[in-house]
Write a structure and sequence with these properties.
Layout: H1 2-27, H2 32-54, H3 60-63, H4 66-84, H5 93-122, H6 129-151, H7 156-159, H8 164-181, H9 183-203
Helix pairs in contact: 1-2, 1-4, 1-5, 1-6, 2-4, 2-5, 2-6, 5-6, 5-8, 5-9, 6-8, 8-9
Length: 215
């Protein structure tokens, strides 16, 4: 049962992050190949970094290609819908883009943060809180970071609302919930924490302090 729930969450997170990556590609006027590459990188990039840190060679994305396949199909669907509905690219595209990115990135971040922590636990690092939080955070934000670097835009995690910090809080929550209530409660509860923080940050326009210089 636990493995089934984990797999379902991973697929949902993969679809969400692939959709956000594909949308960035569309926004940067990439062709379908570029859109698919960004979708796949966003979905599996964080997990690939996590697996390398854990010494899992080859990384899981190459051992279980189902996630790459799902990400590719999702990216094609996003591209296809926007290709057939070109009117969505006109007028209110920025508003649609921002809302879509917020929803998809929030879902993906919440799910992949807890997946990263759970992967560390399954590999025997249950007592290493620092490593588990790092694994959760890098799994959550790594794909989006690679996506934005490839797209040539400022990384979302550094400029938009509360992002990486939400992942860190969620990773800590997952670790302590796991120790008290077990895997399923930890993954569901901590992912909800991440999503709630992201929603509140967007709704109330919470941002970390930054320096502003005169032009």
């Amino acid at each position: 049962m636990q493995e089934i729930i984990t797999f379902i969450m991973e697929i949902i997170g993969t679809v969400a992050f692939a959709a956000s990556g594909a949308m960035v590609g569309v926004g940067r006027r990439m062709d379908i190949f570029g859109v698919c590459v960004l979708g796949v990188v966003t979905s599996v990039g964080g997990g690939m970094i996590r697996d390398i840190v854990l010494g899992i060679i080859p990384p899981g994305m190459f051992q279980k290609p189902v996630y790459t396949i799902v990400a590719t199909l999702t990216s094609c669907v996003v591209f296809g819908v926007l290709y057939l509905k070109k009117e969505l690219l006109e007028g209110h595209f920025r508003e649609i883009y921002d809302r879509f990115m917020l929803i998809m990135d929030t879902i993906g971040l919440g799910i992949f943060t807890v997946v990263g922590v759970n992967t560390g636990i399954r590999h025997g690092y249950v007592d290493n809180t620092f490593l588990l939080v790092f694994l959760g955070t890098i799994t959550g934000v790594g794909g989006g970071l690679l996506r934005d670097m490839m797209a040539g835009v400022p990384p979302y995690i550094f400029v938009k609302h509360i992002y990486a910090c939400a992942s860190i809080v969620g990773a800590f929550s997952c670790v302590y919930l796991y120790r008290s209530f077990g895997t399923v409660a930890a993954m569901v509860g901590a992912s909800a924490v991440v999503m709630l923080i992201r929603y509140l940050a967007a709704h109330y326009r919470w941002n970390l302090p930054r320096l502003k210089r005169e032009e």
